[in-house]
Amino acid sequence: MAKARRGEPVVIGVIGGSITAGTAASTEAHRWANLMADWWRTTFPSSTITLVNAGIGGTGSDIGTHRLYRDLLNYDPDFIVVEFSVNDSEGEYAEKMMEGVVRQTLQADSLPGIMLLLLRQQNGVTAAPSHKQVGNHYNVPCVSFADSIAGAVAEDGHILGDIFTDGLHPNDLGMQYIADFLIEELNLIYTALPDDEDLS
Known about the structure:
Helix 4 packs parallel to helix 5 and helix 5 (92-106) crosses helix 6 (128-137). Helices cover 44% and strands 14% of the residues. The chain contains eight helices and five strands; from the N terminus they run H-E-H-H-E-H-E-H-E-H-E-H-H. The protein is globular, with a radius of gyration of 16 Å. The longest helix has 20 residues, at 172-191. Strand 4, helix 6 (128-137) and strand 5 (142-144) form a beta-alpha-beta unit. It has helices at residues 2-5, 18-21, 32-43, 61-71, 92-106, 128-137, 145-155, 172-191, and strands at residues 10-16, 49-55, 79-83, 113-118, 142-144. By secondary structure, the chain is of the alpha/beta class. Strands 2-1-3-4-5 form a five-stranded parallel β-sheet, sandwiched between helices.
């Protein structure tokens, strides 16, 4: 964020499954990743923001940890969001594989910031508790759509079925909810960002 605030170019990366790839979005512009990238462009208009989308349908963090460098870290991202909670199964295996993604990211040459996006299926199935364990251990921000979406849609007069096409893939409305949760967290972080001279 400090780089973008100075007007330097910033690379935003996302990795995950079909939801990150944008399977049920009507256009690329309606994918959650693109909506989030729009926040960066609006917030930092003097910076060139590049989005690298490494979403591949049907892949979990076990495959993600092996393709992370080729598909994402190879582009020297400044910030990445990781989404695998609906393709993983809750448990120790999901924790170990997500830890592989997080540790590789934290050790990458470009020193990217990292955020975990914790999604759920309409029926509530998610590996979010396992991924949250990893995020908490490494002090990585976790944005939990899984915990927040039911209350958010009810408050807006919707039901969960309104935001999914098939119980798994969010439609454009669902993608907007995902982006809004991420943007809320990004705004909190940016509001607390120290001036450049006070950064470590």
